[in-house]
Design brief:
Strand order of the largest sheet: 2-1-4-5
Order of helices and strands: HHHHEEHHEHHHEEHHEEH
Number of helices: 12
Mean pLDDT: 91
Oligomer: single chain
Low-confidence stretches: none
Radius of gyration: 20 Å
Structural class: alpha+beta
Strand content: 5-15%
Shape: elongated
Helix content: 40-55%
């Protein structure tokens, strides 16, 4: 079962190393230091909650920056989300498009740019677009229906619902989130990739060059007619 992989020593220790590294610069009063101090005791406790289906994510804190709004997860919750991401990334990898370049092992932004550059000479017509406010606009019910096609472990599905249907503290006011996924969460890039899988599948059928990096994608075509056909499919 997937939940056993998520709760395994290997995966939780890997997630712990990640959260320690990503939060090494935190203030000395940050909760990451408590988690690090008592990790061996907390790991056993977390494993029990995960395996029994009793794990619950705590409230998030909304942080407003100049150009974006981030939802901050408690360190323990961030660790669990990273563990879920580690297991689901491997589980879903065979089902995700190799044209989705923001996922680990696909080349990243540089790989996408190289691919586009290599195919420009044979394709005169270009279409590039993105989704404004992509994370915030994702329909949670549609996303979960897609997830259920590949994940059947009820305990993992319950955790994913908890990740989606979160509640956020925003200046002392608590808000229930019923749309979108969390920006700044280790699981969100994978969920963002999965949500646009129908688009990836549709583009594969058209035969045009296609590359996607999260919610930005490029279509190259040798003729105007082929490009219009691909755009219509979008």
């Amino acid at each position: 079962m997937l939940i056993e992989q998520i709760a395994s020593n290997q995966v939780l220790d890997q997630a712990f190393a990640w959260v320690c590294d990503s939060r090494a610069h935190y203030h000395f009063n940050g909760d990451i230091w408590h988690l690090r101090r008592w990790w061996h005791e907390k790991k056993t406790f977390i494993q029990g909650l995960l395996r029994s289906g009793s794990y619950r994510f705590r409230e998030l804190r909304r942080i407003r920056a100049e150009d974006r709004i981030i939802e901050w997860w408690h360190s323990q919750d961030a660790l669990v989300l990273k563990a879920i991401s580690i297991v689901l990334s491997e589980h879903l990898f065979p089902h995700l498009s190799p044209r989705c370049f923001h996922l680990a092992g696909t080349g990243g932004m540089k790989g996408a740019v190289r691919e586009v550059s290599a195919h420009l000479w044979e394709n005169k017509f270009v279409f590039r677009t993105d989704v404004k406010g992509y994370y915030a606009s994702i329909n949670q019910n549609i996303l979960m229906e897609i997830v259920k096609q590949y994940v059947t472990d009820d305990l993992v599905l319950a955790l994913l619902w908890g990740y989606l249907r979160r509640y956020v503290s925003d200046g002392g006011k608590f808000v229930d989130i019923e749309q979108g996924i969390s920006l700044g969460c280790p699981l969100s890039p994978l969920m963002g990739a999965l949500f646009l899988k129908p688009l990836d599948d549709r583009m594969a059928e058209h035969g045009c060059f296609y590359a996607r990096f999260m919610d930005d994608w490029v279509i190259l075509a040798p003729t105007r007619w082929k490009l219009r056909k691909a755009i219509k499919a979008v």
